[in-house]
Amino acid sequence: MFSRRRFIVASAGALAAPSVLRAQGAETLREAATGLDQLHAILVQRGDETLLAEAPRGPGLGRVANIKSCSKSVLALLLGTAIERGEVAGLDATLSEVAPDLIPSDATEGAGDLTMSDLVTLRAGLEGTSGGNYGAWVRSRNWVAYALRQPRVAPNGGWMIYSTGTTHVLGAALATATGKSLLQLARERLGTPLGIEVPAWTRDPQGFYFGGNEMALTPEAMLRIAVLMRDGGAWDGTQVIARDWVTRSQEGQTRSRWSGLDYGYGWFLSPSGWTIGRGYGGQIIAAQPERGLAVAITSDPTRPARSAGYFGDLMALLDGPVLGLA
């Protein structure tokens, strides 16, 4: 039995040695994380200190994993670099201004008027190509044209409609505007400054790299992106992404009707202060600037992670044991 005297002695020791509390917290987190049978790897960093780096399942910490729709968050960062460099005039620039040749002659009315803001915040107003519509879309001969022909279900800039077709259009527009593929942009503007490898990933029939899905990164590389978001776009003393872009990305522009989370420029935002890239199966890139925390999680990419299921478990992990390490 844990007596009052032993409790007082243990508490005094913990107060005298904060490292003891940190170690206990890390062990609590480790036990909670490894108890989730979908979780492959988890890394947690506070400041410059790695508090946890575990890979109980999967390929490990140093091998690439499919980050699924965390790719949307990476794509949003690339949009920020294109705007900063003047390759895209701004968030209000329309698709017809940025990449008119992408718009098919039979596109849904208003498709050319979609702004970069509409696309990056998933407010294109067109029926989604994710979920049950995903298969038909990726089997089509032209992914961009197919997405822009979808029936209109909301006005441009209306409510959030989760659709990878929308971010693929954005990715193709970025490639067109910059004259560089998304692979080149990702390697030059994130890979090189962060010191991470960005392997080639899926391309559509026209050769555009998939905008918003199928990118592959190691958990360690994902953590560096999380640190980048935590530290206002800076990495190792260098401003990689404009601070203003990161700040604006962490301001809610719309809200997911599925998770209830706010959504900024490509990133989900939790009431507890997390900025989250979220991918199918439970792939997570998360930053908590106020607490100085950065997290990367990879999971089984073949199993779903619904908001009321495994993703909810991951949010409980972030809001509980992880925040407890701050």
Strand order of the largest sheet: 2-1-12-11-10-9-8-7
Using the 3D structure, state the CATH architecture of the largest domain: 3-Layer(aba) Sandwich
Query: What fold name stands as the CATH topology of the largest domain?
Result: Beta-lactamase
| CATH homology-level superfamily of the largest domain | DD-peptidase/beta-lactamase superfamily
The outline comes out as: globular
Main CATH class of the largest domain: Alpha Beta
For the residues shown, what is the average pLDDT? 93
The helical percent reads: 25-40%
What Rg, in angstroms, do the CA atoms define?
21 Å
InterPro entries: Beta-lactam-related, Beta-lactam/transpept-like, Diverse_Enzym_Activities
Organism: Salipiger thiooxidans
Protein name: CubicO group peptidase, beta-lactamase class C family
Domain Beta-lactamase-related: 63-306
Explain how this protein is built.
Residues 63-306 form the Beta-lactamase-related domain. The chain folds into two domains: 35-67 and 215-326, DD-peptidase/beta-lactamase superfamily (Beta-lactamase); 71-214, 3-Layer(aba) Sandwich (Beta-lactamase), CATH 3.40.710. Mean pLDDT is 93; it is low at 1-17. The longest helix has 17 residues, at 18-34. Helix 1 packs across helix 2 (18-34) and helix 2 runs antiparallel to helix 12 (310-322). Strands 2-1-12-11-10-9-8-7 form an eight-stranded antiparallel sheet, sandwiched between helices. By secondary structure, it is α+β, with helices and mostly antiparallel strands. Strand 5 and strand 6 (238-239) form a beta hairpin. It has helices spanning 4-16, 18-34, 70-84, 95-98, 116-120, 134-138, 143-148, 164-178, 182-194, 219-230, 243-249, 310-322; strands at residues 39-46, 49-54, 65-66, 216-217, 234-235, 238-239, 254-255, 262-263, 268-269, 275-279, 283-288, 293-299.
